[in-house]
């Protein structure tokens, strides 16, 4: 069998950096990226013949675990009817109805192929609907690689320590106002200064691309209030959190929750990852009045050759159907067990840290125990150097973590006792490695 090293050497002659998405290159942790050849349940297997308990879960989609039998069966059945029709199919409405049944603010949904397309379209739609130009985003929030949202964008930019991307024009950058996360006063001030020019505020429902950050009490509700006071839209980016942290995403845990103190609903939601169950599908949805501004009903153009692809729709329908309350309860429970064990192991070695949580998502930040990570400045000020030795120790013990401290850890309903025990057994040595970094 060809080894990961040989495969990486070859890939580098064929693709920039040998990868098709930057964080996969192990840039911030060093070493040879593992080339994966199989994924089943809680495990990944690499080309070197080793297996790993997977804490990346395809960066979110594998909520049920990899290759869940219901999802595979649905995909096989769909494939038998053809791969792509270039015309409408019944499965698109089936998936849209499942989303609508879970997220009441979604009166209309448009399927696209990636999270980037979903946020890009949401931004264009907000501009078309309001007739305004400016967009507010928060430093450290990642919404995909559309030009206008690449400033201080977290995720791979945080990993590579890039302030933004080359190739984005100054004119485009000038149409985005970047504000500190968790700071409603900064949002109020921006609206006081430019209120009649702001089309939308876009925010991750709970940030998970600068590591995980918990939205402060009332932060998302405050954004909803301020935008509606000024005739702007709130775009809630649930590409990562949607259908992962709960049946109705992070919004369902907070704004949409009957037990929440403040109920609020964004004008537009964006979804990705879990909605396609591992195949390339994403979506935007929201109020009919806004969504109907999209072509063919309205003047805002958007289209896609593979949008609503029947195989991807089948994977999404099977995934959301199988994602019952017990799946979310299992993932919540595993998340709590693991984050508790993680804190225990790091504390035993005297490693200053905070575990950052939002629903079942969490991440670790080093040197941040004093007040945790509230925003991108806090995230960047942490002791990043402790992560690489921690990561490699875990990898050597057969646990595949995100290869960057700025990414969330993902669990699935397939993480059983055996998988969890492997992680627990690996933690003490990794904590030691972090301590001595
Ligand atoms: N929004 C958020 C919150 C994300 O986490 C991501 C990807 N990690 C995206 C948008 C972009 O999605 P995609 O990678 O499918 O383009």
Characterise this structure.
The chain is of the alpha/beta class. It folds into two domains: 4-63 and 324-435, Aspartate Aminotransferase, domain 1 (Alpha-Beta Complex); 69-322, Type I PLP-dependent aspartate aminotransferase-like (Major domain) (Aspartate Aminotransferase, domain 2, 3-Layer(aba) Sandwich). Helix content is 37%, strand content 14%. It is built from 15 helices and 13 strands. The strands form three sheets. It has a seven-stranded mixed beta sheet, sandwiched between helices. Strands 1-2-3-13 form a four-stranded mixed beta sheet. Helix 3 packs parallel to helix 11, helix 12 packs parallel to helix 15 (417-435) and helix 14 (387-396) crosses helix 15 (417-435). The longest helix is centred in the C-terminal third of the chain and has 24 residues, at 325-348. The protein is globular, with a radius of gyration of 21 Å. The chain binds 4'-deoxy-4'-aminopyridoxal-5'-phosphate. The site of 4'-deoxy-4'-aminopyridoxal-5'-phosphate has 16 residues, from helix 4. Residues 59, 114-116, 119, 142-144, 155, 204, 209, 237, 239-240, 272, 282 line the site of 4'-deoxy-4'-aminopyridoxal-5'-phosphate.
Provide a short characterization of the protein structure:
The chain folds into two domains: 172 residues, Aspartate Aminotransferase, domain 1; 254 residues, Aspartate Aminotransferase, domain 2, CATH 3.40.640. It contains 15 helices and 13 strands. The longest helix is centred in the C-terminal third of the chain and has 24 residues.
């Amino acid at each position: 069998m060809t080894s990961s090293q040989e495969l990486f050497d070859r890939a580098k002659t064929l693709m920039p950096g040998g990868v098709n998405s930057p964080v996969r290159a192990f840039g911030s942790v060093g070493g040879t990226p593992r080339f994966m050849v199989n994924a089943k349940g809680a495990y990944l297997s690499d080309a070197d013949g080793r297996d790993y308990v997977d804490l990346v879960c395809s960066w979110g989609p594998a909520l049920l675990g990899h290759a869940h039998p219901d999802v595979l069966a649905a995909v096989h059945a769909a494939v038998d009817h053809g791969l792509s029709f270039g015309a409408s199919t019944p499965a698109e409405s089936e998936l849209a109805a499942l989303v609508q049944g879970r997220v009441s603010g979604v009166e209309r949904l448009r399927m696209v192929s990636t999270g980037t397309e979903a946020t890009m379209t949401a931004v264009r739609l907000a501009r078309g609907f309001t007739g305004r130009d400016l967009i507010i985003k928060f430093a450290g929030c990642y919404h995909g690689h559309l030009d206008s949202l690449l400033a201080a964008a977290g995720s791979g930019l945080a990993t590579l320590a890039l302030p933004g991307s080359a190739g984005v024009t100054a004119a485009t950058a000038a149409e985005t106002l970047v504000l500190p996360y968790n700071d409603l006063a900064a949002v109020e001030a921006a609206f006081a200064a430019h209120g009649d020019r702001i089309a939308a505020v876009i925010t991750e429902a709970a940030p998970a691309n600068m590591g995980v950050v918990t939205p402060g009490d009332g932060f998302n509700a405050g954004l909803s209030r301020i935008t509606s006071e000024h005739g702007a839209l709130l775009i809630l980016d649930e590409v990562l959190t949607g259908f992962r942290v709960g049946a109705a995403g992070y919004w369902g845990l907070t704004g949409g929750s009957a037990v929440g103190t403040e109920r609020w609903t964004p004008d537009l939601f964006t979804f990705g990852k879990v909605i396609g169950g591992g195949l390339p599908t994403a979506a935007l949805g929201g109020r009919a009045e806004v969504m109907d501004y999209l072509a063919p009903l309205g003047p805002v153009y958007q289209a896609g050759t593979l949008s609503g692809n029947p195989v991807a729709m089948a994977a999404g329908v099977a995934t959301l159907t199988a994602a019952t309350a017990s799946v979310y309860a299992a993932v919540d429970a595993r998340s709590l067990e693991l984050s508790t064990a993680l804190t225990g192991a790091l504390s035993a070695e005297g490693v200053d840290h905070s575990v950052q949580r939002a629903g079942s998502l969490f991440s670790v930040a080093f040197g941040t125990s004093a007040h945790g990570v509230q925003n991108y400045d806090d995230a960047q000020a942490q002791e990043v150097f402790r992560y690489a030795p921690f990561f490699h120790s875990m990898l050597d013990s057969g646990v595949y973590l995100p290869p960057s401290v700025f990414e969330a850890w993902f669990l699935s309903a397939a993480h059983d006792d055996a998988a969890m025990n492997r992680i627990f057994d690996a933690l003490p040595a990794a904590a030691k490695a972090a301590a001595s970094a």
